[in-house]
Fold these 2 entries.
Entry 1:
Amino acid sequence: MGEQRSLPVPEGLEGERLDAALARLFGFSRTRAAELIATGDVLVDGSIAAKSDRVHAGAWLDVTIPPPPATPMPVAEPVPGMTILYEDDDIVVVDKPIGVAAHPTVGWTGPTVIGGLLGAGHKVATSGAAERQGIVHRLDANTTGAMVVAKSEFAYSHLKRAFKERTVDKRYHALVQGHMDPLRGTVDAPIDRHPSGDGRFAVVAGGKESVTHYDTVEAFRAASLLDIKLETGRTHQIRVHMSALRHPCVGDLMYGADPTLAARLGVTRQWLHAVSLAFEHPASGEWVSFTSPYPEDLARALEIVSDES
């Protein structure tokens, strides 16, 4: 049984669509509000209504909010293609392949870094939520490259603090559409969930501070290879910032990339790779650095775009 909420429609929402009114009142996305209305969990003056119905001030809303689905636990099984770049008693640095999430989330049924490590017999820290043990930072499921996981509790707390205090050097290479102007620069624009509620993120006033430094490594006819240093680590940060500059990552159809160019270069995901990761080792205090080579699909796309120039 979900949580029951009953309240009158405030005057400020007079004439709004029901889905928009619910989104405003409860902080849902419009999509989530529409789902609740469709399943009969929203009554207006005791009756089921449509999402497009207009609400009137004083009308009584009865809303049943189902409990959130439980986050699945990691499935301990080896992940093909995931290699170990470095490992000791405190940390393990993986080269994450395409189609692998950092840890389980609601709605993700594919392989995870945590599940892959456990399945291959590696120990990880038990700090943090059970489904994301040892995870101190994440890469999107379809972003490849270097990612560190804490094995000891000491390393977990040390690395969590290092990422929070921005003392970790995170570098990415991105192939973006067109040419950057200026060739190097900084994007300082706040990011939050896209108002559509469709899983995208966007530059939104009042969002979380997000800072991306970029430098052009090479400009081709159709695209540019960028070296990117992240100061903050928001979800989809590079993808959102590049899209906001009208230079989305090649192949990133979610953020407005050209499908024709993606098809010509044979990429079926965003051309974005976590090329290196450097930080102070939790145990020794030494500055350590790890690099990941381009995977086959990105290397091939770069070859094609270079040959065309």
Entry 2:
Amino acid sequence: MAKNDWTYEEHVVAFNLYCKIPFTKINATYKPVIELAKLIGRSNGSVAMKLANFARLDPAQRARNVSGLTRGAKGEEKVWNEFNNNWEELGWKSEQILARYKSESIESSAEVYIDDLPLGIDRETIVRLRVNQAFFRKTILASFNYKCCITGINSTELLIASHIKPWAADKENRLNPTNGLCLNALFDKAFDSGLLTITPDYTVKISDTLNLEKENNLFFSKYNKSKIFLPQKFLPNKEFLEYHNSKVFKK
């Protein structure tokens, strides 16, 4: 195979990286781009170009009038189409391939730890779950440029990759990045409890339950009716937001 022909597995790990880094970091000098290039034996510029090619397929980029590179390869389209409606498989499969390139265990490569497994729990099931959860978190935080989409807090330790449609409510979209929001821990808890929501036009709504309490004004009420900071990739799905408004939010 000619060196210029990217393999299927190279496309998969490139898409993995596209998901896990901020859009503004897609360049040949960004450390994760350099690291992936070294792993797969490609130039830094070639990997950066491949990531930019994936951007042309991302509806969020088109909504921002950012098209990436106008010309791409069929390999990008094949991988995008294969995994765009099967995010759980993308997370697991791409992390497995990446671990093989690194010659590491998938737990080490994906930076997940399973030393706390209770007896009797199926190890492979838990490893897959935690690898996918880690992939979802990295994707959501990178999409929102490591900032809470309501408050702008940017301390990574305080940020949560929140599900819009709850984990238990929609198995197929548990890892879909358009089902995610980057929220600080306090606002994540309020969102999960239905004490605040985000409307399909990306406006914050605070429940009257919180607005009635003066002590909460400092934390919540000042954000009522404000617009969220939109992600650079994977815009929150409006149908999922509508679900949260109608099924979870406590008006």
